Amino acid sequence: MTFQRARTEEQREVRRRAILDTASAMLDEMPVAEVTLNELSRRVGLAKTAVLRYFESREAVLLDLLDDRTASWLTELERELAEGVAPDGPMAVRAEQTAEVLSRSLAARTVLCDLFGAQGGVLEHNVSVESVRRHKRTSLANLAVMGKLFRRHLPEIGEHAEVFCLHALLIAGALSGYSAPPPSLLAVYESEPELAVHRVELRPALRLAVLTSLLGLLPRAE
């Protein structure tokens, strides 16, 4: 891809979107930790200094991508919850269905989980105060949308909805780091299966953790 010098706001937005789309495509091939600014610049067809005119760092690119992917995912999650949670079922049944839908949805989006896993320890570093402020405002808005979805299907969660949503995303990020073992660890598991007893499979591990968190926040049945 070759760009001419961006002279209008529309052209700058096209350039910015191309950078994000390229980073997104890279994440379909490699984990967050392997995405570099040099490779991103090469793939998008811009000098590294040009990329830095639109994003102050690699982390800033990935933070924006995290926000974009979260918003897109929430649109899909709304449909998945509507299809997977019985509107008139008992609270315990709806809680289990909610945990099942959420864990299945997140486990199918390993890139998003990887981004959540890198958020606190990596992506929110090496960025300016204004970038972090913008990201946190967007994150809060996304959490509000997510919380509203869960209150719709599980109104008993009440004011705890956003806390539950935050915990679920943090758990997904943490578990994702253990669900794709490197080749050396896979070799160990293959040669000594007894060492694989606690190997993490993302979806069932996430479902258990999400359901446990959810049940802890719901009122006890009389």
TrEMBL record:
SUPFAM superfamilies reported for this sequence: Homeodomain-like
HTH tetR-type domain location: 13-73
Keywords: DNA-binding
Protein name, per record: Transcriptional regulator, TetR family
PROSITE patterns per record: HTH_TETR_2
GO function term, MF aspect, one: DNA binding
Keyword DNA-binding: yes
Pfam families: TetR_C_34, TetR_N
DNA-binding region in chain numbering: 36-55
Residues forming coiled coils: none
